[in-house]
Amino acid sequence: MEWIVRECVDAAGCPLEISAAFVGADVLVCLQGGDQPHIGCVVQTEPRESLTGNGSVSATSSVLNYPGHKDEVICRYVAEKVSGELNRRVVCTGGFHKDRITAEEIREVQIVLETVTEKIVGQLR
Question: Starting from the edge strand earliest in sequence, which strands make up the sheet with 57-65, in order?
Fold first, then answer.
């Protein structure tokens, strides 16, 4: 396996790196950042027709969190977005940690992550 996409950006004054690779037809994404990069959760997605009934593709997710970690929010977003856009199974793992992070900085990380995820989807297409 070779990482084919790697994006490194700044979020809330910390580095944020997202790497992605194809594993057969599936996609593996690794997200790491902040003061203490780590693996806080694993999100596994299966693409499916959206429940909205409009014919779009969405994803069903299964999540494993380490106790006390809140990395699901960002990893789940990435996994579901990539899965829905590419109609592929996706596993996203990783974590972002910054001591004493503020609500404003959390929102900044989410906004940066949305932008980077769009780039990753485009590069994986």
Answer: 5-11, 14-23, 26-34, 90-97, 41-49, 57-65
Architecture of the domain whose range is 5-119: 2-Layer Sandwich (3.30)
> What ranges do the domains of the chain cover?
5-119
Distance CA(80)–CA(95), nearest Å, equals 16
Q: pLDDT tens digit string along 52-99?
A: 889 888 899 999 999 999 999 999 999 999 999 999 999 999 999 999
Tell me how far apart the alpha carbons of residues 3 and 83 are, in angstroms, rounded to a whole number.
17
Within a 13 Å sphere around the CA of 111, how many CA atoms are in the beta-carbon half?
9
pTM assigned to the model? 0.93
